[in-house]
Every structure is written in C-alpha cells, then in structure tokens.
Write a structure and sequence with these properties.
The chain is of the alpha+beta class. It contains nine helices and 13 strands. Helix 7 crosses helix 9. The chain binds aspartic acid (ASP).
Length: 303
C-alpha cells in the first residue's frame, strides 16, 4: 500500500499576486505531510501536520492570515476526521487559537463530543493547556486593509483560501482535515461548511476521504464531501465523483468550489469549478501540483 497526501489552499479567483505564494505553500505542506507518512505516521497525523503548516502560512485564510468578520474579528472553524472509526472533531468561531485543527483533534480525542463552538471551545482549549495567542497576532496587515475596503460579496469573491488535506497511510487508513477563517465580512457568528461533518470534510476507510473549499453556504446545502463519497460508493472514479458533485452544486444552488479526494487504495483527485485552486499531492511517483483548471505539473521529490 503506498501512502498519499493531497492538500488545497482554497478554491477562488486567486489573484496573480498571490498565485506563486499559494502554490509554494501547498507544495511545502504536501511534502511536510508526506514526510510524516514516510516516518510511519498515520493519515491523521499527516493531515494535521499539513494543515498546521498552512494555518501558520499567512498567505492562506486559516490561523494566521484569516479573513475578518463584519466586526473586524477573526472567527476560525476547523474539522478533522479519522476514517478508521468515523471519529471526528471540530471547532467553530474560535478566536485566539493559532492552530484550530489541533484543537479539533483534541475535541475528537479528549471529549465525548464532535464539535465545540466559540467560548466553549476556548474553555476546553484552556482546560487542556493549549496555548492561546492574542487575537491581533492572527490578523495580517493585508487582511486589515481588505476589511477596511468593506468588500461587497459576490458569489465568487466570497470564498477565500481555506486550507485542507486528505491522506491515506501505508495501512490503508484515510483521514481529512479542513481549516478556515471563513469568508470576508461574514456576519458575526457565521459558521460555514468547513467544520461541518459531511460538508467541509468526511473520511471513511471503506470509501475515501474528502476536504472541500468554496462557497460555504452552497457546500452545506449539498453536503458536498459526503455527496462526493456517495458517488464513489456507487463505483464512479474519484475525479468523476468530484466533478459531478461540483456540477450539481453549481446547477442546483449556483455555488462554486473545489475538493480533494483520496481513496484507501491510494488513488487521488483535485477538482474545482472556481477560477483557480492551489493544490499539491505527493504519491509514490513524486510531487504533483496545480492552480489553473486542468493544470497538473510534476516534480521529482528531492531526497
Ligand atoms: N468554505 C469556506 C467557508 O465558506 C470558504 C472557502 O473554502 O474558501 O467558510
């Protein structure tokens, strides 16, 4: 069984000025996640490591660099899911946690619940000794500027560079993780698809693992991650399942987005209906990456 990791840095109209940094960021995260798998780490460990790296990278809308809500505050959402047991953990509307994906993992492993929100999530973080950071440290100069511009939403500009990862380890276990600051100027308390099981992500060893990105309200309406896996269950390829599900979301609720998928046997796909999505994958053949529709570049891994 060969290990695979795929990561994304959000499906949206990534401006040229952010294109290179977005592609570089997902490549580094995919390689970091893959090295966890190579050292014998689980798929769960790999997706957490990859997403932590993306949360720390200010290019992406997660952790450091998150977009701001209508009040100019950071409110972060994240999910992680273990395909072995269907155990899942999520947090929503957390403010001063640098790596929400790790808090989501703690919810999964240390509580009897699937999701904690807002103050409760922060109280839990405190109870397990997870470090908090002053909220201001998560806000970048660029994001402050964008927020001041008071951008008016349109379907495509709403979505931002959410991050996610899916992986299969050498034992055939799959996992997914997704983390986001949501959409710029969102209402205070708005929760999108990213932390919602079956929408922003899903992982089941019997089928595969998915992480989604794009217009959250649309993804929620079609439960995109589970929809993709339902088509995989029916025998369709990962790429066809993703494309058909994204097309359904476009036709049915006029939403655009993207998804990365991995199967327990090590197949994978990265698909989107937005203008661009930065993604990268590492499998036994090397490092793959892309940004534009149908773009698939390859590099040998230097090791
Ligand atoms: N899906 C995220 C949200 O709506 C945004 C994104 O993927 O960029 O919160």
């Amino acid at each position: 069984m060969s290990a695979v990791i795929v990561v994304h840095g959000g499906a949206w109209a990534i401006p040229n000025g952010l294109a290179k940094a977005s592609v570089d960021g997902v490549k580094v995260a995919a390689c970091d996640g893959f090295s966890v798998l190579q050292r014998g780490g689980s798929a769960l460990d790999a997706v957490e490591a990859a997403v932590r790296g993306l949360e720390d990278n200010t290019v992406f809308d997660a952790g450091h660099g998150a977009v701001l809500n209508a009040d100019g505050e950071v409110e972060l959402d994240a999910i992680i899911m273990d395909g072995r047991t269907l155990a899942s953990g999520a947090v929503s509307s957390v403010k001063n946690i640098a790596n929400p994906v790790s808090l989501a993992r703690a919810v999964m492993e240390k509580t009897a619940h699937v999701m904690l929100t807002s103050r409760g999530a922060n109280l839990f973080a405190e109870s397990i000794g997870m470090a908090t950071v002053p909220t201001d440290t998560l806000v970048t100069e660029n994001e402050m500027k964008e927020w001041r511009k008071n951008i008016t939403f349109s379907c495509h500009s709403r979505a931002h560079d959410t991050v996610g990862a899916v992986a299969v380890d050498s034992a055939g276990n799959v996992a997914c993780a997704t983390s986001t600051g949501g959409i710029r100027n969102k209402m205070v308390g708005r929760v999108g698809d990213s932390p919602i099981i079956g929408s922003g992500g899903y992982a089941d060893n019997f089928i595969g693992a998915v992480s989604c990105t794009g217009h959250g309200e649309s993804i929620l309406k079609v439960t995109l991650a589970r929809l993709i896996l339902s088509l995989v269950e029916q025998g369709k390829s990962l790429a066809d399942s993703s494309q058909l599900s994204l097309k359904y979301m476009g036709d049915r609720v006029l939403g655009a987005g993207g998804a990365i998928v991995v199967s327990p046997s090590g197949q994978w796909a990265a698909t989107f209906t937005t203008e661009r999505m930065a993604w990268a994958a590492v499998d036994h053949d090397g490092l793959w990456y892309g940004l534009e529709p149908n773009e698939r570049r390859k590099e040998q891994l230097s090791q």
